[in-house]
């Protein structure tokens, strides 16, 4: 499936025909079927076996300029369900969470603070939530940057299929990369990524440098939303240091796995750091 430029003024038949490389004979057959049966172009093309129902949904999304990846050749992970399966119940859950955060953490006509995503343990789904939340904000048509501040076990470059690069957050904090080392996400308009970069031997010390706080300030001026992925609490104090510099955040815990004491300890530390915690999500995905 080749991507086409979203344009709601284009007829759905043109979008379907171009995206699926329908021949002139196939288009004529669809039009004849459509006329004979009183159906829509997409329905006729599906009935004739030229396209699938998913192809019609994708074409409709293009008309309304809704970022929707419908390509088997993409490097994006299946974990990015808001982009790859935007009409699934799981994606709807992220849109609901986005709406709650817009009301509580990102009020209109006010500067938006960077927003950290935290968890007590590895495997809780922190990066999964950070990535999908960032996509959901980008789908509002607002410029969003997702920072991988997990300098210990970064995952976002892999999830988004980024090529190996010498630049990243760690490199920026020591002055080896420019602050604008962020890059556009593949197939997702309005979303930019700042990967972790080369793994440093001193991640906490880098985070606690003034250069990290300055970077967050700069990115907050350039982007509507700044979402920051963090390391799990069990590997160090990095996440709370990051959240303190962001000012607000969300805690992700694994249902039937995360210990209550670990969650309570993280929340207590965030309270001491005066971090505005939007809530705790029990991840069962």
Rg from C-alpha positions? 22 Å
Compute the number of structural domains.
2
> What is the overall pLDDT average?
89
Q: How many beta-strand segments? A: 7
Going by CATH, what is the homologous superfamily of the largest domain?
P-loop containing nucleotide triphosphate hydrolases
Taking the sheet with the most strands, its summary is: 7 strands, mixed
Give the spatial strand order of the biggest sheet.
3-4-2-5-1-6-7
Q: Report the structural category.
A: alpha/beta
**Which architecture of the largest domain would the CATH scheme give at its second level?**
3-Layer(aba) Sandwich
Task: State the helicity in percent bands.
Answer: 40-55%
First and last CA, distance: 28 Å
Report low-confidence residues grouped into runs of 5 or more: 1-8
Classify the fold: give the CATH topology of the largest domain.
Rossmann fold
Order of helices and strands: HHHHHHEHEHHEEHHEHEHE
Tally the helices: what do you get? 13
Overall body shape = elongated
Please identify the top-level CATH class of the largest domain: Alpha Beta
Percentage of β-strand residues: 5-15%
